[in-house]
Every structure is written in structure tokens, then in C-alpha cells.
Amino acid sequence: MKPNFLIFMTDQQRGDMQPTFQMAKTPNLDRLAKNGVVFRRAYCPSPHCCPSRATFFSGLYPSGHGVWNNVDLADALSKGLHDNVRLFSEDLREAGYHLYYTGKWHVSAEENPEDRGFETVYMTARQTGEKADKKRAPDMRDWKWYEDKKYLYQGADRGDGEIVREGFPKYCQYGEQENPFGDRTVVEAAKDKIKALPEGKPFCMYVGTLGPHDPYFVPEEYLKLYPLETIKLPDSCRDDLSDKPRLYQRTQKRFRQLTEKEQKKSLQHYLAFCSYEDALFGELLDELEKQNLLDNTIVIYLSDHGDYAGAHGLWTKGLPCFEEAYHICSVIGYGKIQNRNAAVNDLVSLADFAPTFLELAGVEIQQKLAGKSLVPFLNGTTPHNWRTEMYTQSNGNELYGIQRSVFDDKFKFVYNGFDFDELYDLEKDPHECHNLAGNPAYAEIIKTYYKKIWKFAYENQDMLGDAYITTALMDYGAGIMDEGK
Rounded to 5 degrees, what are φ and ψ at 432? Predict the structure, then answer.
């Protein structure tokens, strides 16, 4: 009997907001973890919704699927997937699955979930999220934010949690709201569909919420879980980024408007948002149990990317290539999962989920994927020759900038085409506060990691190979891969 799948993907939830880290209160996610596996070191390929979601559905990195940043923008690098890319949903559909989609899409501006095998149950506005209300900043995807003058900052005093920029709308980092981003509506639609599922037919249901994405507006009751006096900012919050690329410093500058108390309130609201998403997720677990579906349903809780949440004095996400933006939630549990109450410390990629679903469903993979199946972990074993390094690919987060990174248990190396590189000794400096890239003593180590980036680029057809003198700014070219052969 084929297993069912319920996929719950949040937006911008840091990996240490899941069980075993004890940062956020998530009783329902704890419940899932007791009946399955927590992947403690799961990462996205890019700290951005669209490329990461495309990786999740395709099992490919951005260089393979073709989505590099926000597909909804007029100046997007790409509006959709490469022509030859196939999503796991299409394979499941052909294998007899009924597929249902509710919530955020954000994979392609040229296609909807229906084009890839799903029945759309409910989709959030503009396929990406509920439009802003008067408490939030206006939609910034077109010129309406400028034309509607009432939103523009006119030089008034900065309010609690606000970041002001002359000529721009005010941005308020946190607040209270009963149904932020319409996430409850998304979950209610999914619950209603679960009640009406046809008997005897395997299903895959995707539920995509917008929380805990900024701005962090949450129902008041969840703030009470995190008294402000208990909130502790990250150890790296006072990093002035003086040894990091200038773009990092410029990004941080706007968040420096927030006082220490406002920074703590921001984290309080972010944590509360994670608990709110957990409560919504719990309602879906309860509905599955009520309909006697849990025993044959594999439940996946994960996020598309992380949030700095105060680390290095930063919030939300962006180009700064720090752990907090890339580390994601990843828990798989319930039906058919043999490994229970387990925590895995091996490196896992969002690209690994597509091959995992296909193997669990008994579907033969039809194209070469960058990801690898997680099924052995779910059965309590470690796959042979599992990865010991993780790679990232970003061409910028609206503000374009070529960046690639590789990290393992020892070092993290970041190539920045727009500025100088970064190297962190993760054993001595786990919070990535001291950039060693300018230290001659580490020159050979940097060269070694350049070799790794080039090898990964070659294997994944990442076009870093333009050797033109003004565009090839890497310190070493692809030819170093041949050294020592």
C-alpha cells in the first residue's frame, strides 16, 4: 500500500526553531519528532523563497532548475523553471497519487501547481502571500508603494519597532494580528480537504504557510509564551561586520535603528510566530488522526530558508552568508517511519526531499538529481558515502550579487563576486564572527575550498566558467581541479 504524504512548509523558519534545540516552544513538532526523525543539519541552497522551493520540488540546485530569485519581480533573473525540469509531483501523479495544494507556491510565475500535477485547494494572494493591510508595509513589487503617498515616510518620529528610510514606506518589524498572512485560512482549507479525501486513494497534500516570515505579526496569546525578560539575543548580535563585505554592513545599518529592547521584542515575536505555526500544524495532525490516516501518512515539517533573527545584528534574510539564513527545519515522522525519536547530525539538503518521496512511493527516478534519498535515515541507517560538505548557490536576494559557499565540520568558505571572500574556522568560531580570508596563513586552505566550489559547479553545470578578465573575479580558475591528478 502506497504511503500518503502531508508536507507542511513554513517560510523563513530557522533550523534551531525545531526540536532538540529548545529555542522555540513547539509541542506539535515535538510530537512529530517522537514519531520520526529530526534532521538537525538541514540546509537550503539559497536563503530565498523561490530558488529554495524550486530545489525542494525538483531535487536540483538553482543552476539545475533555473530559478535564482523572486520570480514575481519585474527584474527577476528568471520567471520560472528550465524547460527540461520535472517536479516530484508529476511523478507521483503518474503513479496514481491525488495531489492537493494549499497556500504559498512561489516556484514559478509562469506556472501554477495545476501545471505540475496538483489540484489547487486554496492559494494565497498573488501566489505568494496575503496582500498587506494597513498595519503592514504596502506591496513592493510594483510602483503602487510610491503612488499611494500615504505610506511614504514623511519625517515623523520613529515608532516602536519601526525602521524608517526617507522616501520609502515605514517598515514595522513586529506587531499583533489574529490571522497573520492568512495562514489560518490556508490550514482550514487543508483540514476541510482532508475530511473529504476519497477513500483508498494515495494522496500528497502540500500546505505552505507564510509565517514566521517578517514582519513578525502574531496573535497576542503566543507572545505570552515568551516573556520579554527571558529573551536573550544571539551571541553574535554585536558583530560590527567590519571584516565582512561592505554589502553586509550596509544591510545591517538599517536594523541598527532598533534599540536593544526592540531587538528583543523582535525575537520575542519571531519565537511566538514559530509557536503559532506549530499550533496550526498540530491541527492538521489532529485531523489526520481523526480521519484514521496517520498510520499510513508520512508527515514532513520543513522550512524553505532561515532568518538571521538578530544574529550579526541582522534580521529576515539576505545575501550575508551566515548559518542562520541557510539552516532550515526538517522533521519527518509517523506512518511507515521505522526510526523513531531519532536525531540525525549528517548534512541534509532541500534537494534530498524529491528523491526521498519518490523512493517512499516506489517510483523510479526519471532524471539525474542533485539530491539523495533520506530513506536510509528513516530506516535507522546511514547511507554509504553520505556527503560531508554542503554547498550554496546565490545570485543575490533582489539585490544581485554572485555568491557561492562550501562548508564542512571544519571550515566555511564564501566566494563573493561583488567583494572580498570569507573564511571561518567553524571549530574555533562557530558563530562566524572572525573572517580569516585576508590572513596569508590560510591561503592554501582557501585554495582547497576553491577547488571544491569549482568541482561542485562542474558537476551541477553552474556557469561560473566565464574566464573573461573583468568578470572572472575568483582567485583561482577551474583548472586547479586538475592539480594532483
Answer: 55, 50
- 8 A C-beta contact, residue 163 and residue 173: yes
Which residues are paired to 10 by β-bridges?
A: 303
Instruction: Report how far Cα 152 is from the mean position of its chain's Cα atoms.
Output: 30
Query: What's the rounded Cα separation, in Å, for the pair 42 and 168?
Result: 36
Residue with cell 592539480: 483
Q: What is the largest CA-CA distance in the chain?
A: 66
- First-to-last alpha carbon distance for the chain, in angstroms, is 49
List strand residue ranges (DSSP E) for 55-135, in order: 98-103, 119-123
What residue ranges in 398-469 does DSSP mark as E strands? 399-407, 411-416, 422-425
Give me the long-range contacts of 222-229 (CB less than 8 A, separation at least 24): 222/272, 222/273, 222/275, 222/276, 222/279, 223/176, 223/268, 223/269, 223/272, 225/25, 225/271, 225/272, 225/275, 226/25, 226/268, 226/271, 226/272, 226/275, 228/261, 228/264, 228/265, 228/268
DSSP 383: P
Cell for 245?
563585505
At 5, list the grid cell: 504524504
Quick one: DSSP state of residue 170?
A: -
Q: Which residue has the cell 551571541?
A: 235
pLDDT in tens, the chain (485 residues): 899 999 999 999 999 999 999 999 999 999 999 999 999 999 999 999 999 999 999 999 999 999 998 888 877 888 899 999 999 999 999 999 999 999 999 999 899 999 999 999 998 864 444 443 444 445 566 677 777 776 676 666 889 999 998 888 889 999 999 999 999 999 999 999 999 999 889 999 999 999 999 999 999 999 999 999 999 999 999 999 999 999 999 999 999 999 999 999 999 999 999 999 999 999 999 999 999 999 999 999 999 999 999 999 999 999 999 999 999 999 999 988 999 999 999 999 999 999 999 999 999 998 899 999 999 999 999 999 999 999 999 998 777 889 999 999 999 999 999 999 999 999 999 999 999 999 999 999 999 999 999 999 999 999 887 788 888 889 999 999 988 76
Q: How far apart are CA 331 and CA 26, in angstroms?
A: 12
pTM exceeding the 0.85 threshold for the entire prediction: yes
Indicate the pairing of strand 422-425 with strand 411-416: antiparallel
Task: Give me 318's grid cell.
Answer: 539576505
The answer to whether residues 65 and 85 touch, using CB atoms and an 8 Å cutoff, is yes
